[in-house]
Amino acid sequence: MREEGDPHGDSLSALVRGDERVSAAGRLEIYANAYFYRILDCLRQDLPALAACLGDDGFHDLITAYLFRHPPRHPSLRHAGDRLAEFLADAAAEPFLRRCPFARDLARLEWALVDAFDANDAPTLSREALTRVAPEDWSTLCFVFHPSLRILDLHWPVDRVRDRWDRDGQVPTRLEPTPGSVCVWRRDERVFQRPIERPEGEALHLARSGASFATLCEQISRQVGDDAAPERAAALLSGWQGDGLLSGLQPLDQP
User: In a structure prediction context, what are the per-residue pLDDT tens digits for the chain, which is 255 residues long?
Assistant: First the structure.
């Protein structure tokens, strides 16, 4: 069934069958809308705090604008929102940032939670493994971090927004810009997040880049002084191991 004035009616009818109730174009529109709402529902589940901050209409409009700019590239809806934070840095997203100035940071954090949940499995380093390291070997050791670990440097304390949502299904009405860092990781099928102070954030970035424990201690010494450095380094290492951020140790020259 070809609609009046539709130049693509013949080719469309070859792909989609219409009838006396719904034309081919109408039927295709139903499928298109259903697909959009399926994506919208998936992203609302992945980004619940962002959806709550923007409201139903605002989130609907955001995802509509986002999908026009970044249509899905992967057959799995799991990846549909992987460029939303990128879109929120674009000038086209300015109306949404007026409503929720921290939307981009919140999208980054919530997507990191999704990524961490789906990251590859890996063993966690035991405390016993650390105690077995000979004293003379420590200086040349590097740390292997769990594949789920994400470190985000943010302009807004959006971890508070997500914490509030997880706690009672509410979001703050106001938030002051406060630069900081958050780490996200998975352990025992559960995803965690916590803010990290600048010295720890710098140490994590350095250690994940492949720096040796000796190099890490040198940086810590510049931050807190030579006398306090050993205790500080031991505390960081103990915390990373206890949280399950570490998967292993390897010599400096090993890939």
Answer: 344 445 445 565 665 565 666 555 555 555 567 788 899 999 999 999 999 999 999 999 999 999 999 998 888 889 999 999 999 999 999 999 999 999 999 999 999 999 999 999 999 999 999 999 998 999 899 999 999 999 999 999 999 999 999 999 999 988 999 999 999 999 989 999 999 998 899 999 999 999 999 999 999 999 889 899 889 999 999 999 999 999 999 987 755
Q: Which two tokens stand for residue 108?
A: 């980054």
Q: Dig out the tokens for 127 from the structure.
A: 């405390």
List the beta bridge partners of residue 249. 143
Identify the CA nearest to 204 among candidates 177, 184, 225, 227: 184
Half-sphere exposure in the Cβ direction for 226 (13 Å, CA): 0
Task: Say how far apart CA 153 and CA 156 lie, in whole Å.
Answer: 9
Phi (first) and psi of residue 17, to 5 degrees: -90, 125
188: left (phi over 0), alpha (psi -120 to 50) or beta: left
Q: Between the CA of residue 123 and those of 140, 211, 242, what are the distances in Å?
A: 22, 21, 13
Q: Please state the φ and ψ torsions of residue 190, each to the nearest 5 degrees.
A: -120, 135
Could you tell me whether strands 150-154 and 180-187 are parallel, antiparallel, or unpaired per DSSP bridges? antiparallel
**CB contact at 8 A, 28 and 22:** no
Measured CA to CA, the distance from residue 188 to residue 74 in angstroms comes to: 28
For residue 119, give Cα distances in angstroms to 110, 122, 226. 14, 9, 37
Q: What is the pTM of this model?
A: 0.84
- In degrees, rounded to 5, the angle at the alpha carbon of residue 32 between the alpha carbons of residues 29 and 37 is 125
